[in-house]
Structures are given as C-alpha cells and as structure tokens.
C-alpha cells in the first residue's frame, strides 16, 4: 500500500489538517493516511498530554475510512523522534510518503538521523499557493536529493488559514472555534477543559 503520514502535535487537530490530508491522498493516489500525533517532542513543551491529542485526532478522523490514527508516538516513553517511528513502520512492505509543510522542508537536516529517515520514506511538500519563493524551494529540494538521495515531491494545496496556535488562543479568550475544528473535537475540548 501507499501510505501518507501526517505527523505533528495535533494541538488541536483542525479542519485544515483533514483537508490537506484528503487533498494529498487523492492527488498522489495514496491508499491511506496515517495520522501520528507526536508524543513528547524534542523541540517544544506541550500543555496537553499526548493521550488527549491522540484522542482528539481519533475523534476528528473517525468518519473517513482512509484515515487511521496510530498511537506509535503517543505511547512511546521519553522523547519522540521521527527516525524511531519510521524504523518501526518500515518493517512492513508499504511505501511511505511523509507529508510536510514548506517551513519543515528547511528543517529536515536538523532531524535526528535524517540520513536514515531519508532511506525509509519519501516526502511530499505541501506548498501553499501564496508561498512566493519557488527558487529557494527548488534549491533546497535539489540539495536534499543530491546529499541524501531523497525522493521528494511537491503538492500545491489550497490556502487554508487555520492554525492550532490561533485556535488555542481563541479558546483562552472565550471565542468560537466553530468551523475551524470538527464539532466533536470542540465538544471534547470543552468537556476536558483544554486550552482555558
């Protein structure tokens, strides 16, 4: 199977995550999308537990049979690194396509054991239509291909102006997050008292 991977903190998962995943699944003829909420990421401290972020992701994706949520990182002890996740997933015969944003493209070299990761997955870079530095992207992709033999593809995605940071701030301020987050996730956030 051809499987796309949506990683990230999912703090909280929102409609843009789901729309991007569906868009890329269709454009690249992927069989499934695995959503893998991070456990304890090395680069940031999160106020919401990995279990709650995992549960929100399950709630958000339950009605799409092509979406599956894995707890491979949320159950991992200690810091969570992509190389460990990809090493575990690569024990199957599936082809993996790690979905990243333009900003992450320029951080790949800083990932732990990126050389190993580059042998275990292909990458799809979701480029926003308003991103205007095509030359910089092309140069970075060429450099990564040359240095690591990376298989990397570009995906143009519609412009979705939704961010988890904005959603958390809106909840803190008592403002609506309807139409930014699935309704059942909103109910979960309210029930659990998250982001207050």
Kindly summarize this structure in a few lines.
The chain has 196 residues and is α/β, with parallel strands linked by helices. It has helices at 15-27, 50-61, 82-89, 102-105, 114-120, 134-148, 164-172, 183-192; strands at residues 2-8, 32-37, 67-69, 95-101, 122-127, 152-156.
Structure description:
The structure is a single chain. The protein has a six-stranded parallel β-sheet. It has 196 residues and is α/β, with parallel strands linked by helices. It has helices at residues 15-27, 50-61, 82-89, 102-105, 114-120, 134-148, 164-172, 183-192, and strands spanning 2-8, 32-37, 67-69, 95-101, 122-127, 152-156. The mean pLDDT is 93. It has a single domain (2-161), classed as Rossmann fold (3-Layer(aba) Sandwich), CATH 3.40.50.
Percent range for β-strand residues: 15-25%
Task: Give the low-pLDDT segments.
Answer: none
What sequence of helices (H) and strands (E) makes up the elements?
A: EHEHEHEHHEHEHH
Give the CATH class. Alpha Beta
Helix content bin: 25-40%
Structural class: alpha/beta
């Amino acid at each position: 199977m051809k499987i796309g991977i949506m990683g990230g903190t999912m703090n909280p998962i929102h409609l843009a995550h789901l729309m991007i995943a569906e868009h890329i699944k269709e454009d690249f003829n992927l069989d499934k999308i695995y959503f893998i909420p991070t456990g304890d990421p090395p680069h940031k401290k999160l106020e919401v537990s990995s279990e709650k972020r995992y549960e929100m992701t399950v709630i958000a994706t339950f009605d799409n049979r092509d979406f599956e949520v894995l707890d491979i990182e949320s159950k991992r002890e200690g810091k969570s690194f992509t190389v460990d996740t990809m090493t575990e997933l690569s024990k199957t015969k599936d082809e993996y396509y790690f979905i990243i944003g333009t900003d992450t493209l320029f951080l790949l070299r800083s990932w732990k054991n990126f050389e190993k990761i580059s042998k275990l997955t292909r990458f799809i870079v979701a480029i926003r239509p308003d991103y205007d530095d095509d030359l910089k992207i092309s140069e970075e992709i060429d450099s990564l291909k040359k240095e690591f033999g990376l298989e990397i593809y570009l995906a143009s995605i519609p412009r979705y102006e939704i961010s988890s940071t904005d959603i958390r701030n809106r909840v803190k301020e008592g403002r609506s997050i309807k139409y930014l987050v699935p309704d059942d996730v909103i109910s979960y956030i309210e029930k659990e008292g998250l982001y207050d």
